[in-house]
Amino acid sequence: MAYVITSPCKTEKAADCVDVCPVDAIHGDDVMFYIDPDTCIDCGACEPVCPVEAIYEEEFVPDDEKQFTEINAKFFAD
Predict the structure, then answer these.
(1) pLDDT tens sequence across 41-71
(2) What pTM was estimated for this model as a whole?
(3) CB under 8 Å to 76, separation ≥6 — which residues?
(4) Are 76 and 33 in contact (CB under 8 A)?
(5) Domain locations in the chain?
(6) From CA 74, how far away is CA 51, in angstroms rounded?
(7) Under CATH, which architecture does the 3-77 domain have?
């Protein structure tokens, strides 16, 4: 997985990231948006447009947000 959406998305859920994703890797539910690890091409277009800074490259996800790496992947596994 190249990028991960973390908890700040829950309070904002702005769709700016969806609009800029060139491969349609970002989808959501009533709670937040998620990035499909199999579709993401690691382009980074989503990260700078997030108004709440909820998107990180996987290796830079803060320790207290690490569970969102699995949460993003599980959303697409179901």
Answers:
(1) 999 999 999 999 999 999 999 999 999 999 9
(2) 0.94
(3) 27, 34, 36, 37, 38
(4) no
(5) 3-77
(6) 24
(7) 2-Layer Sandwich (3.30)
